[in-house]
Amino acid sequence: MAEEKKQNLQDGALTGIKILDLSRTLPGPFCTLMLADMGAEVIKIQEARRRRNSLETLVPKSELTTDDLKAGYTPHRAIDRNKKGIALNLKNEAAREIFYKLVKDGDVVVIEFRPDVGKRLKIDYDTLKAINPRIIYCAVTAYGQDGPYADYPAHDANVIAAAGILGATGTPDGQYVLPGVPIADLCGGGMNAAVGILTALFAREKTGRGQFVDISMMDGAVAMMLARHNMLYGITGQSPKAGQRPSHVYRTRDDKSICFAGGEPWFWERLCKTLDLEELIPYDQAIKPFAGFSKEREWVISKLTEKFLSKTRDEWLESLHKADTCIAPVHTAMDDVLNDPQVKHRRMMVEVEDPILGKIPQPGIAIKLSETPGRIRTLAPRHGQHTSEILAGLGYSDEEVEELKKDGAVV
Question: Are residues 287 and 399 in the same domain?
């Protein structure tokens, strides 16, 4: 029996879970990517009409050499790998009927529409719950399903601005800097959506019922902000300001950079001893995250800046790793990241065989499971690539599929 269960999960821990993904931008697709990598069957409900500025159509045209590629081949869009693609015009009644049939046999629906759009399209939670009471309906939005901001359009930068993350990210003179990755999109939205869906699936095993999962990117961003800053605010009543969390990034002799981030006194002592700057050890004020930029701190940082310029980055990395303190290289190019020995060892970039382009680089799978590991089964689908296959699975004949295409219900 145990062996039978193991075979059933050979594609991953979520084998047998069917997800209908109507999301378009980054949060929803990132969520369903994580679930697809772990074995879930994700059917991407693509728009029948491909909008020019849609993320789905951002293909590197300079690399396309055949008519098939120019028609919308998107193997580089790693965020949609392990998914199937069916193009439906949900404003068409026949297309909605197809979607309802998929819902009847599905487990999860993921959307990114503003709160009223699902009802207008007749694919809101109440409608789908009547078709399948076990359905889990995950709505990822900027601000959530209710509240004064619920209907506002927004992207990642708007959300982290309102959540206070942007206001605490920058230089001491008040210049705000966007983080290098969209935190609200990927963490506040995508990751929280994945956790919410998995939690709802677990609850369904006990209750037999699905539920509505309301994911607000701003809720997630505020939660992250409070996890980092709530202690300070609760004790002092002070709000974090840009520049109060100095980077401790220093240039080295070979014009590269190195980052120290050891807030504990023992890591600070090991740094100072290795740099032969033991006179700085009492000045732990220099590394406290909210100490501000006092003259004392500026003097300490100037000493560190001068010392780090005396050796190359790799020389400092070798000696400071031996000293067992918190040090890391500052990679400024993706090639440097991908060639980092830790990244290579953990297989965070892999190559997958593509039938047209040959070997294609793909991001590795971050979540490592010992018994049911995730894997890359397929590359991103072309627009409507699996429409006919999925319709056939629902019982539509070839003639019916052709009629649906002529009617503009599917592509």
Answer: no
